[in-house]
Amino acid sequence: MLKGSAVCLTVLAAVGSASYVGGHVKNPSAPLRPPLHPQTGLSAAGDTRGQVNLPPGLRTTASGPVTETHVS
Amino acid sequence: MNLDTYLWILARVSGLTAAAALAISLLTGLALRSAVLDWLTTNRALRSTHEFTAILWIPLGLSHMVLLLLDGNVRTPIRLIDLVLPFRASYGSLAIGLGTLSFDILVLVAVTGWLRRQIHPSAWRWIHRLSYLACGMIFLHALLGGSDFSAPQVSAIAWSVAAVLAVLTVARLLWGRLSAEGRDLQRGRPNP
Question: What is the spatial distance between Cα A39 and Cα A50, in angstroms, rounded to a whole number?
Protein backbone atom coordinates (compact mmCIF):
# COMPACT_ATOMS: atom_id res chain seq x y z
CA MET A 1 0.00 0.00 0.00
CA LEU A 2 2.87 2.37 0.84
CA LYS A 3 4.53 1.72 -2.52
CA GLY A 4 1.23 2.43 -4.25
CA SER A 5 0.91 5.68 -2.31
CA ALA A 6 4.47 6.66 -3.30
CA VAL A 7 3.70 5.98 -6.98
CA CYS A 8 0.38 7.87 -6.73
CA LEU A 9 2.10 10.88 -5.13
CA THR A 10 4.79 10.86 -7.82
CA VAL A 11 2.21 10.63 -10.61
CA LEU A 12 0.23 13.41 -8.94
CA ALA A 13 3.38 15.55 -8.81
CA ALA A 14 4.04 14.81 -12.49
CA VAL A 15 0.49 15.74 -13.51
CA GLY A 16 0.55 18.90 -11.39
CA SER A 17 3.96 19.92 -12.75
CA ALA A 18 2.91 19.24 -16.34
CA SER A 19 -0.23 21.27 -15.83
CA TYR A 20 1.71 24.20 -14.35
CA VAL A 21 4.68 24.12 -16.75
CA GLY A 22 2.37 23.68 -19.77
CA GLY A 23 0.62 26.90 -18.80
CA HIS A 24 3.85 28.78 -18.09
CA VAL A 25 6.27 27.79 -20.84
CA LYS A 26 8.36 30.93 -20.39
CA ASN A 27 9.11 32.47 -17.05
CA PRO A 28 10.65 35.97 -17.26
CA SER A 29 11.82 35.76 -13.66
CA ALA A 30 13.71 32.48 -14.10
CA PRO A 31 17.10 32.73 -12.42
CA LEU A 32 19.07 31.11 -15.24
CA ARG A 33 18.84 32.64 -18.68
CA PRO A 34 21.09 30.82 -21.11
CA PRO A 35 22.01 32.87 -24.21
CA LEU A 36 19.83 32.23 -27.25
CA HIS A 37 22.64 33.32 -29.48
CA PRO A 38 26.21 33.71 -28.23
CA GLN A 39 26.89 36.80 -30.42
CA THR A 40 23.83 38.86 -29.49
CA GLY A 41 23.64 37.74 -25.88
CA LEU A 42 19.83 37.66 -25.99
CA SER A 43 18.42 35.47 -23.25
CA ALA A 44 15.93 32.63 -23.54
CA ALA A 45 13.60 33.36 -20.67
CA GLY A 46 12.08 36.36 -22.43
CA ASP A 47 13.90 39.57 -23.08
CA THR A 48 11.92 42.27 -21.29
CA ARG A 49 14.15 45.23 -22.07
CA GLY A 50 12.05 46.17 -25.09
CA GLN A 51 15.05 47.36 -27.08
CA VAL A 52 15.62 46.85 -30.79
CA ASN A 53 19.11 47.01 -32.24
CA LEU A 54 18.89 48.57 -35.71
CA PRO A 55 21.67 48.07 -38.23
CA PRO A 56 23.70 51.25 -39.00
CA GLY A 57 22.56 51.41 -42.67
CA LEU A 58 18.84 51.67 -41.86
CA ARG A 59 17.29 55.06 -42.79
CA THR A 60 14.68 56.71 -40.58
CA THR A 61 11.64 58.66 -41.84
CA ALA A 62 9.77 61.79 -40.82
CA SER A 63 6.34 60.14 -41.48
CA GLY A 64 3.99 59.61 -38.56
CA PRO A 65 3.61 56.16 -36.98
CA VAL A 66 1.10 53.73 -38.53
CA THR A 67 -1.57 53.31 -35.88
CA GLU A 68 -4.41 51.78 -37.92
CA THR A 69 -4.70 49.34 -40.77
CA HIS A 70 -7.03 49.16 -43.77
CA VAL A 71 -9.25 46.69 -41.92
CA SER A 72 -9.56 48.69 -38.70
CA MET B 1 4.68 23.73 -30.17
CA ASN B 2 7.97 22.54 -31.63
CA LEU B 3 10.07 19.61 -30.45
CA ASP B 4 12.53 21.79 -28.52
CA THR B 5 9.80 23.49 -26.54
CA TYR B 6 8.33 20.08 -25.81
CA LEU B 7 11.74 18.87 -24.56
CA TRP B 8 12.11 22.01 -22.43
CA ILE B 9 8.70 21.41 -20.81
CA LEU B 10 9.48 17.73 -20.22
CA ALA B 11 12.85 18.61 -18.65
CA ARG B 12 11.16 20.93 -16.16
CA VAL B 13 8.36 18.46 -15.40
CA SER B 14 10.83 15.61 -14.87
CA GLY B 15 12.94 17.83 -12.58
CA LEU B 16 9.97 18.78 -10.42
CA THR B 17 8.69 15.19 -10.32
CA ALA B 18 12.15 13.83 -9.45
CA ALA B 19 12.28 16.29 -6.54
CA ALA B 20 8.88 15.05 -5.33
CA ALA B 21 9.97 11.40 -5.58
CA LEU B 22 13.18 12.23 -3.75
CA ALA B 23 11.21 13.95 -0.98
CA ILE B 24 9.18 10.75 -0.55
CA SER B 25 12.42 8.77 -0.42
CA LEU B 26 13.84 11.07 2.24
CA LEU B 27 10.61 10.98 4.23
CA THR B 28 10.48 7.17 4.27
CA GLY B 29 14.19 7.04 5.14
CA LEU B 30 13.72 9.46 8.03
CA ALA B 31 10.64 7.57 9.19
CA LEU B 32 12.61 4.34 9.13
CA ARG B 33 15.20 5.75 11.52
CA SER B 34 13.00 7.96 13.71
CA ALA B 35 9.86 5.80 13.91
CA VAL B 36 7.59 8.80 13.20
CA LEU B 37 5.45 6.67 10.89
CA ASP B 38 5.29 3.65 13.20
CA TRP B 39 1.58 4.35 13.70
CA LEU B 40 1.03 3.81 9.98
CA THR B 41 2.99 0.74 9.07
CA THR B 42 5.78 -1.67 9.94
CA ASN B 43 9.48 -0.93 9.57
CA ARG B 44 9.75 -3.70 6.98
CA ALA B 45 7.15 -2.06 4.73
CA LEU B 46 8.84 1.31 5.20
CA ARG B 47 12.23 -0.12 4.27
CA SER B 48 10.75 -1.76 1.19
CA THR B 49 9.11 1.53 0.14
CA HIS B 50 12.29 3.48 0.83
CA GLU B 51 14.26 1.14 -1.44
CA PHE B 52 11.49 1.23 -4.04
CA THR B 53 11.57 5.05 -4.32
CA ALA B 54 15.02 4.84 -5.94
CA ILE B 55 13.25 3.23 -8.91
CA LEU B 56 11.14 6.40 -9.10
CA TRP B 57 13.65 9.22 -8.65
CA ILE B 58 16.71 7.85 -10.51
CA PRO B 59 14.99 7.56 -13.93
CA LEU B 60 13.27 10.90 -13.39
CA GLY B 61 16.53 12.61 -12.45
CA LEU B 62 18.29 11.04 -15.43
CA SER B 63 15.47 12.14 -17.74
CA HIS B 64 15.77 15.70 -16.41
CA MET B 65 19.49 15.75 -17.25
CA VAL B 66 19.23 14.07 -20.66
CA LEU B 67 16.29 16.24 -21.76
CA LEU B 68 18.23 19.41 -20.88
CA LEU B 69 21.15 18.08 -22.87
CA LEU B 70 18.94 17.38 -25.89
CA ASP B 71 17.04 20.66 -25.73
CA GLY B 72 18.17 22.63 -28.76
CA ASN B 73 15.73 25.52 -28.36
CA VAL B 74 18.10 27.24 -26.01
CA ARG B 75 21.74 26.96 -26.92
CA THR B 76 22.54 25.78 -23.46
CA PRO B 77 26.24 25.15 -23.09
CA ILE B 78 25.61 21.97 -21.07
CA ARG B 79 27.82 19.17 -22.32
CA LEU B 80 27.69 15.47 -21.63
CA ILE B 81 30.59 15.79 -19.19
CA ASP B 82 28.62 18.39 -17.18
CA LEU B 83 26.14 15.67 -16.31
CA VAL B 84 28.86 13.77 -14.46
CA LEU B 85 31.49 16.30 -13.36
CA PRO B 86 30.09 19.25 -11.37
CA PHE B 87 30.92 22.97 -11.68
CA ARG B 88 32.29 22.74 -15.22
CA ALA B 89 29.39 24.35 -17.10
CA SER B 90 30.31 27.72 -18.59
CA TYR B 91 27.20 29.47 -17.27
CA GLY B 92 25.18 28.92 -14.09
CA SER B 93 27.97 26.65 -12.97
CA LEU B 94 27.03 26.80 -9.27
CA ALA B 95 23.33 26.04 -9.79
CA ILE B 96 23.95 23.34 -12.40
CA GLY B 97 26.98 21.96 -10.54
CA LEU B 98 25.00 21.53 -7.32
CA GLY B 99 22.47 19.45 -9.23
CA THR B 100 25.19 17.32 -10.83
CA LEU B 101 27.04 16.79 -7.55
CA SER B 102 23.90 15.87 -5.65
CA PHE B 103 22.89 13.42 -8.38
CA ASP B 104 26.36 11.81 -8.23
CA ILE B 105 26.11 11.47 -4.44
CA LEU B 106 22.58 10.09 -4.55
CA VAL B 107 23.50 7.51 -7.17
CA LEU B 108 26.43 6.47 -4.95
CA VAL B 109 24.02 6.21 -1.99
CA ALA B 110 21.55 4.15 -4.04
CA VAL B 111 24.19 1.79 -5.44
CA THR B 112 25.84 1.23 -2.05
CA GLY B 113 22.34 0.67 -0.65
CA TRP B 114 21.79 -2.18 -3.10
CA LEU B 115 25.25 -3.58 -2.29
CA ARG B 116 24.81 -3.11 1.43
CA ARG B 117 25.67 -6.70 2.33
CA GLN B 118 29.03 -6.41 0.57
CA ILE B 119 29.98 -3.18 2.36
CA HIS B 120 31.15 -2.64 5.93
CA PRO B 121 28.15 -1.39 7.96
CA SER B 122 30.00 1.67 9.23
CA ALA B 123 31.12 2.67 5.71
CA TRP B 124 27.60 2.14 4.38
CA ARG B 125 26.13 4.27 7.17
CA TRP B 126 28.47 7.19 6.48
CA ILE B 127 27.87 7.01 2.74
CA HIS B 128 24.12 6.87 3.34
CA ARG B 129 24.29 9.95 5.57
CA LEU B 130 25.58 11.90 2.56
CA SER B 131 22.03 11.78 1.20
CA TYR B 132 21.04 14.54 3.67
CA LEU B 133 23.75 16.74 2.19
CA ALA B 134 22.69 15.81 -1.35
CA CYS B 135 19.04 16.67 -0.66
CA GLY B 136 20.11 20.06 0.71
CA MET B 137 22.14 20.67 -2.43
CA ILE B 138 19.17 19.68 -4.63
CA PHE B 139 17.07 22.26 -2.83
CA LEU B 140 19.75 24.89 -3.52
CA HIS B 141 19.96 23.69 -7.14
CA ALA B 142 16.21 24.28 -7.50
CA LEU B 143 16.39 27.62 -5.71
CA LEU B 144 19.30 28.98 -7.77
CA GLY B 145 18.46 27.44 -11.14
CA GLY B 146 14.85 26.26 -11.18
CA SER B 147 12.74 28.10 -13.75
CA ASP B 148 9.58 27.42 -11.76
CA PHE B 149 10.85 27.95 -8.24
CA SER B 150 10.03 31.64 -8.28
CA ALA B 151 6.35 30.85 -8.94
CA PRO B 152 4.29 30.94 -5.73
CA GLN B 153 2.40 27.74 -6.65
CA VAL B 154 5.65 25.79 -6.84
CA SER B 155 7.68 27.52 -4.15
CA ALA B 156 4.91 27.26 -1.53
CA ILE B 157 4.80 23.47 -1.93
CA ALA B 158 8.59 23.14 -2.15
CA TRP B 159 9.29 25.26 0.93
CA SER B 160 6.58 23.45 2.93
CA VAL B 161 7.95 20.01 2.05
CA ALA B 162 11.50 21.20 2.75
CA ALA B 163 10.44 22.57 6.14
CA VAL B 164 8.77 19.28 7.14
CA LEU B 165 11.81 17.29 6.05
CA ALA B 166 14.16 19.71 7.84
CA VAL B 167 12.19 19.41 11.10
CA LEU B 168 12.24 15.61 10.85
CA THR B 169 15.97 15.66 10.08
CA VAL B 170 16.71 17.84 13.10
CA ALA B 171 14.50 15.62 15.28
CA ARG B 172 16.32 12.58 13.97
CA LEU B 173 19.73 14.15 14.68
CA LEU B 174 18.78 15.35 18.16
CA TRP B 175 16.69 12.49 19.49
CA GLY B 176 17.44 9.54 17.22
CA ARG B 177 14.86 6.79 17.13
CA LEU B 178 11.78 7.24 19.30
CA SER B 179 11.72 5.04 22.39
CA ALA B 180 9.12 2.29 22.88
CA GLU B 181 7.34 4.65 25.28
CA GLY B 182 7.21 7.34 22.62
CA ARG B 183 5.77 4.92 20.08
CA ASP B 184 3.13 3.79 22.58
CA LEU B 185 2.19 7.40 23.19
CA GLN B 186 1.95 7.93 19.43
CA ARG B 187 -0.43 4.98 19.20
CA GLY B 188 -2.54 6.36 22.06
CA ARG B 189 -1.50 3.57 24.44
CA PRO B 190 0.41 5.12 27.31
CA ASN B 191 2.85 2.78 28.95
CA PRO B 192 1.55 1.65 32.35
Answer: 18
